[in-house]
Every structure is written in structure tokens, then in C-alpha cells.
Protein 1
Amino acid sequence: MDRKIRVLVAKPGLDGHDRGAKFIARALRNAGMEVIYTGIRQSPESIVETAIQEDVDVIGLSLLSGAHNILFPKVVTLLKEKNAGDIIVMGGGVIPVEDISYLKEKGIQAVFTPGTKIGEIVDFINEKVEKRNK
Amino acid sequence: MTFPDKIVDGDIRSIARGISIVESGGIESDNLLNELYNRNCSYIIGVTGPPGAGKSSLINLLIDEFKHHFRKIAILAVDPSSPFTGGALLGDRIRMQQHAMSESVFIRSMASRGHIGGISGATKDAIKIVSAAGYDLVIVETVGVGQSEIDIVKLSDTTVLILVPGYGDEIQVMKSGIMEIGEVFVVNKSDKSGSEKLATTVKWLLKENYRNKSYLPPVILSSVTNNTGIEDIVKAVLNHKNYIEKNGIDRDKIQERIKDDINILLERKINEFIQHHLKYPENIEKWVNLVISKKSTPYEIIREIKDNMILDIREDI
């Protein structure tokens, strides 16, 4: 048995700044994970559908436009509606510190802002996925 | 409802899980495939060609056209795994994301996981999962291939080979092994210069050399940018489908695939059996040391362990 960790990296909403998302995608690949990258301007609905079809363990959402308080929780809600609430959701991008606790309350399990060391994100995923698949 | 029943019922989450299970292999995968065997009723199209030829973008457009002819379409898109980290960046899906919400389309990205023939070891099993779930068309997109990755032929009923201008002269085309595998040839990026010339060269080569005398593959010019040639590709695929069904080639292909499945399972069993009796891999270090200290050679070791193994097996029986 060789179960690989699968991660969906997606950018919801309208901003086109994908450097961060691409950096994360590559870094997670280099950490041995299988990363599905969907590109920019995805709706929460299509992100959730993609996550289910791709059977991912984790969804990484990246947003720099300021709509995170709406779009990140929307993804979590839709996952629950689709009976896929077990998929881990994390977020990143330009997120004001004062919003982080709200997002966590809404089910986003971690928020990584600029300057985060990539090892921290890799450790977070490894740890969470191990717990989830137990 | 049991898990295999949920797959047959078309439950998306179960289908997706099922593919992960066959990708991971092991006894769980064997049991699932055993339950779902002989349910395949899909037509399988393989799409292959060099990296950047436009395979994903073409498939994206082909989906809309194929929807007129098939009820449910599954796409299995294979991208390479890193040989160093085992990770993979699966990006074929970006070009097809407009179909993410379509209820009749299922898209799954697969990493090649060390398999070198252009697909992953589990691709043929993933086909069985989506096939059991009622997808009557399965499109398999290979990793970008070069000159000899032709595993896709065994899996597919129709293989579509996508070429683009700018990959060298006609000698490159002539020597390339992938030239022998297509049943529909597409010269994509026909808006670029050199595409007409490439199409002419390919047509000429096929006429002279194609292995099958009763079927000559068409060569179709297409452009994703200008949205041209898409209908022609679909027509050519359906034409070939017609041809293989009329001539019973579809049944031959199914026989070959079953043979392949049995061979792979048999090989695995034989390997496990022999490894058990050889105490492999526990012994490999010992053997390497015998060779390093010049006490033996790999040839002598093999001769000796073969004899010992036969004795061991006799005792066992």
C-alpha cells in the first residue's frame, strides 16, 4: 500500500495573482505530494467538485483580493453539503491578522500568510493527513 | 449499499475513492477490482503526443463534441511523477476546468508514479472503475511522450496521436516509434507555420508504411486557438470505432487486455513466491558482499541459489 498525499491548490474569486499558489504547488510536489493545480478564477463550487473527483486530502486556497472572509468559508460549507467535510481546508495569501480567528472559526484549519516557511506548511499537512486517515 | 455498489451507482465520491484505492494497490485494490471486473462497457480513447502539443486543450474542446455521442465521459489525465521526490504537479486539469461542474463529465488527474510507458501502472485499473460506474466514453491522456512510449495502445480502442510543427525534420518523424501507434493523426497548432508540411509528410509516411492495409489513419489539421478541426477529429474517432467493431478488432483488444491482466497478476504471484523462497530482499546484502570480496560473481550466486531454491520448494511441497 502506497497512499500518496493529494493536495488541491486553487485560487477562488477574481484575482489573478498566482505566484504564491504556484510556489506552494511546486514546493509541495518537491515534498513528495501529488498536487493538482486548477489555475485562477475558480468558483467555490468548482473547487469543491474538483476536490471530490480528485479525492484530495487537502485543499489549499490562495487569495489576495480581500474576499477571503466570504469565499474560504463558502468552500467549507459546500464540502459539508457534499458529505466531504473530512477534507482539510487551509488558506493563504494576503489575509489581515484580525481575520484569521474568524476563518478558523469557520473551519479553515490553518492560514499561512506571506513569510511562512514552506517546511511549516509541509509539516502541517503531514500531521493533519495522518490524523485524518487513521 | 456496499462500496462497489456505490461505484456502479455512479456516486462521484466513491468513484474517486475507488481510483485512489487502485492507485495504492494491495489487497484492497485486488478485492475491489475483483468485484468490478467484467463490467466494462466503455469505449476508450487514448490521446498521446509530445509535451506541449496541446493534448489537454484539445481534449477540453473534444469533450463538448463527444457529448453528442456519449452519455457520460471520464477523463484520466496522466502527468509525470518526480523520480527524485515521488511528488507530482498535475496540471492537465487547468485546461479542462470549464467542465468541472458538468454532471456528465468526470476528470481525474493521475501521477505516473515511476511507470515509464507514458501512463501510470494503475491507469488500466482506473479505467475499470469509471467503466463500472457507467462512463461510456473514457479518454486517457498520456504524459508528454517522445519516441517510444506506447503503452497507451494496449489500453485504448482508438489512439489519437497529436503532433505539432517544430519538432525536427522528417527523419525525426520517420524513426519515431510513436508514429506507428496512432489510428487518428492530428497536426495541432495549424495556425503555426510548418503544420501543412508536417501533415503532408505524415500522410506520405503513413501511405508507404502503415502496418494495417485495410485501414489508413486520417491526418487532421486542428487549432485550439481558432477552434478548427475538432469536429473532424471526433468524426475520425467514430469512424475508427465503426471500423474496429465491424472487423471484430474490439473483441481482440478485450482478449488482449484480459491476457495482460492475468499475466500481471501471475507475474506478481510468482515473484512473491520466489522472493519468499529466496528470502529476498533479506539476502541481497549478503550476495553483494560476496561479489565485492571477490568470493563469487552474480552468475555463480544465481546458479547456486536456483539449485537451493528448487530443493527448498520440493521440501515445501
Note: Chain B has a mean pLDDT of 90.
Protein 2
Amino acid sequence: MSVEAAIPEGYVKVFSKPKALSDAKYTYCPGCHHGIITRLVAEAIDELGILERTVGISPVGCAVFLDRFFNCDFVQAAHGRACAVATGIKRARPDLVVFTYQGDGDLAAIGAAETVHAANRGENITVIFVNNGVYGMTGGEMAPTTLPGQRTTTTPLGREPRLHGYPLKISEMLAQLEGPAYITRQAVFDYRHIVRAKQAILKAFRNQLEGKGFSLVEILSTCPTNWRMTPVEAGRWVAEHVVKVYPLGDLKDVG
Amino acid sequence: MSRVLMRGNEAIAEAAIRSGLKCYFCYPITPQGELVEYMARELPKRGGVFLQAESEVAAINMVYGAAAAGVRAMTSSSSPGISLKQEGISYIAMARLPCVIVNMMRGGPGLGNIAPAQGDYFQATKGGGHGDYHLIVLAPSTVPEAAELVRLAFELSDRYRVPAMILADGMIGQMMEPVELPEPVEPEDIPERPWAVTGAKGRPKNVITSFDLEPEGLKEMSLALQETYREIERNEVRWEEVETEDAELLIVAYGTMGRIAKTVVRLARQEGIKVGLLRPITLWPFPYEPVRELAERVRTVLTVELSAGQMWEDVRLAVEGRAETPFYGELGGVVPSPKRILEEVRKYVG
Amino acid sequence: MPKGIVVVDKERCKGCGLCIEACPFGVLGFSSEYNSSGYRVVYMEHPDKCTGCAICANVCPDVALEVYRQEPTKEAA
């Protein structure tokens, strides 16, 4: 840290970078909520003291560089296959704590089958699902989660459900299955929601430690770059519009 | 060594379990159903993980995960299923993970049929998926050899950190023969995997990846992979020769066709026709040198395959005009009799 | 003395402004400084107003902020 001035006596540090994060700078765009979500995962790993037994699975997409940001072991997965890769790791070494971190294109489009079946098996893994409604890395194309009317580079006139399908509510779908232990949808557009999202992530990891099975935390995120908005506008967009299509809260919790 | 009568598919499964297989992931497809079923029965009893995946794509990615976690992992399938696995195999190759993939080939392209075929030679030996990579490809021609090559596949895959494939067909998979099964390996006989993701305790983190956005970085990864391939080419070429000493015509055939060609050699010799056989056991690395040396001494190198002429290309690369290189192949799952091949041989002798 | 201090890692800051928006007391603002990536970084424009609540650091997507808070005095405790 480039400390501007020495901290005077009598002050205690109340916030600093979690130990699970390396010094590598994020590759996310300015204001992207990915950065908050990545940090919350690291904080959860710190608080549970599981860094030395955790393996993360990075996706294809904006989080493809995730292994650089974390200090734990990592495996990079093909687009959409993170839940299958996580299954292989967890079945081979059940003592490891295994989590995937996937975007909406990765998890809900190309990886829908791997996600549904890992959930249905109640695979004892933790899934962090970052939903920002577009393919961020490739240039803002339509995702299965894109809102009706939302303009993307592949729906230049706005998503027309009768042509392009409706927003895919993957968490609602998964919540219908018997396999999963915990399915929740959170957001990080303000401090209050960040605190809640953190609790959800902690629970999703704790469930794994307690052997409860598949836990997925969907987190509504922004993509200021591809939404053509400032970071502040993007956060407001989630709060005002996205949550109407994707209501926040627990969809399944076996306790 | 225990000698038992087994189907090829079952012998492969048993040999894999005795080779320290920890995780097996599959999706059902004919003609390798007995392999899947044997694993489902036996592997969990013997401390391993059996999991039927939702697809071939998922199965190979589960192998990727288990191999990354540092255990011996395997999947098996047949041609259309192997096509689906190509994405995962490409990632596994670049991420330098050892594992074993069994392909019990069937007729193709498309859905084809379930009869014996060798139409996946290109796919198996030239990479198969995207990018510059190879698998070690081992082609058994008998059930006992299949069991033996499974053990070798695990060993070579570990030694070089590249995936290995057993390439056979339903003929080998479903016939029964007496097999000498390999002795079970002890856990300490399996090489250490310090690179595996086992939790970063007391060491820096391990990362399993096939990705580097920087061209120079990716080039370095690629060159290291290519250097391994050159080393495998130097050390691991395997083949069998039958009556090649005085042969005037050399048959090159592998797997099921290699087996049938042995009968052809015997029948031809009974008629006084000097025929020899070179049977590649490793299809990659291909025995270019042995074929080349024999091509210096024979007039004809006849390639016989259950395809439209795939290995034939490698044979011609090896022969480079030193002998004539005719081809005889069958398609669609038709398996020629030794007599039919002998007719083909007669065209080029006397 | 302010109750809190926000330390900005200028090289991590991407100048997105989420912390400025989130601060309940208007402590933070854009400085005139740019970092080596060309981002205009934030600074404590009104340090006296800082309570050390760390909301800024919680909303920061780049983990660019460290927050210190004055320890409660014995009388206050």
C-alpha cells in the first residue's frame, strides 16, 4: 500500500485487504461489481480459516484471471464446465473446500447442463454465480439473463423475448430440485446488500464444511462498460430495474 | 499374475483399477457398456469413485478436475462420445494433466453404427480438439494386450504429464480371451504430483491452467509441451513385427486389423508368398523409422485399415517413395476376412 | 482529530467513484492526481468528517482502501 501518511497513534485498522487475496491488481473494469464479489469470497475464506484447503475454479469470462487474485490453489475451467471440474476435484479429495465462480453466460448458457446436474446431485460444492446480464469479456453480447428490452451488441434493438427468449431464472429453476441445500439471490449495489451478500457467501461455504451439499449464491452485478453507464448509474440500474426481474432473497434453504 | 477369461471391456476396467485408478467418470455408449458397468460394480468396492455424468462433456471435465487434484483418473466412450470430449481433452493436454481415455471405436461419421471401425485414427493421433497437441495413443489387438496397455497408459501419462488414449473397437471390447491381469499397484508406486491442487498448505499455491493471455507466455507453455512430445517420440515408439525378415510385401495394420493381418501372414506363407506384418502399438508416436527401414527391403507396403485410409497417410510419410504403398480399407463396420485381405495381397506379389 | 482515516492505494484505485457516492458524510472526492494506469484517484477531501465507518472500503470494487478508526478513549468506553 502506498500509505500517504503515517497513521497517528490511537488508530486501529478496521478494514484491509483480506489475506486470501494476493497483491495482484484486479483486471476488472472500473466500478465493476465483480471486484466486490471477489473480495467477499476472499473475506469468507479468511473468516472460516480455510485458505490452505480451498481450491477455486475460475471460469471463462471476466473472472478468468481469478487465480492471480487469490492465494489458494486454482483450476481454470473451460467455458461453462466449472461445476463438472469442481465435481471431479471434490469427489477425488472430499476434504478440500471447492468453489466455482462463474458468470451468467458461463453458468446459465453454455454450462446450464453442468450446473443443473451438479445441483441435482447435491454436489457438496459452493457456487458463486455473478449475474450481470451480458457477456462482459467478449463485448457485451446478450446473455440468457439479459432483461427484456435491454440493448446489447447482439440485440441492438433490445432483447425481444419472442425472438431471443426470456430472462433465464436459473436460481428459481435450481430451487425446484431436491439436490441443492441453499439457493439464494443477492446484490452488492450498496453497503447494506454487500453485508447480506457476504453472509450468504459465508453460509454457502459453511454448508460445504458441514457436508450439506450444493450451495449457490447468485449475485446481481453490474457491467458499466457494456451497459454504457457510469459505475454509479449501473448500481442504480440494478437497484431499480434488475431486482424487479430477479427478486432478491433465499430461494431454497434446507437450514 | 492371475489368469482369467474376460471380455476386452472388462479386462480394461479391471486393469485400470489394478493400476490405481481413483476416479472414473462416464456416459453410457455402445460398444463399451461392459466397461461402464464393470466400473460401476467394482470401483466403489475398491476405494474408487464411480460417477455417471450428465454428458460426455461433463465426464471429461470431471476427469480434468480429478486429475488436477492429483489422482489417477479415467473416462471411456466410443466415437461420437469421444468427439464430445475433445474440448476437455484439449484443456487437459495444455494444462499438463495425466489421465487415460478409452475409445472403443464404432462406425461413423455421425451416429454411424456400433460395428468395429477405425475411423477415429486422425482424431486420436493428430490432436482431435483445438490447438497443437497430441495424446499418447495405444492400440491393442488382443484382450491381454489391452490390459497390459492400460497399465502402460497410466504410467506414460504420469511420466510425461500428457493424456493417454487406448484406441480399440467393439471387436476387442466384446471378445473374450484369457488375460494375465497386472498385479495391483501399491499407492507408493504412483508418482508424486507436487503440482496438483491439494490445498496450498506449506507451499505456494498451485494453479492448473491452459491459459496465458500473453503471446510470449503461451509460446513458452507450448514449447514445453512440444519438447515433451519430442521426448515421447524418442523413447516410447512401440510396434510388433511378424515375419518381416524376408518379406517382399509388408502389411501395416493395427488393432483389430493387426490381429487379422497376422492370420493373413500365416495363410500367405502357406502359399509361399513372403508377407510380413508391422503392427504399430503406439499410433502416436507412430513408428515412422521401423516402417521406413522395412520399406527399404520390401517392394510393397500395404496398409490395411477399417477406414478410408487414415493411418495410410502416416505410412506414406514413413515410406516416402521407397516402396509402392497401396491401401485396402473397409468402411461402415464391415470387417474383412483374412481371405479377402489375402486376395488384396496377391494383387501385388508374383 | 478526525475519528477515521481512509488510506487510498493509488495504484489499485480506478477512480470509479462508488466510494464517493457511498460515503454518508461526503468525505471522499476525486483528487487532481492520476495513477500510472491513467485513473484519477480518490482522496479524503474532508478528512475531518470521516468516522471510520469503512462503508467506502466495503463498496470499493478494487480493494483500494484501508480504513483506520480512532480507538475509543477510556472515558468514552
Note: The CA atoms of residues 23 and 67 of chain C lie 13 Å apart.
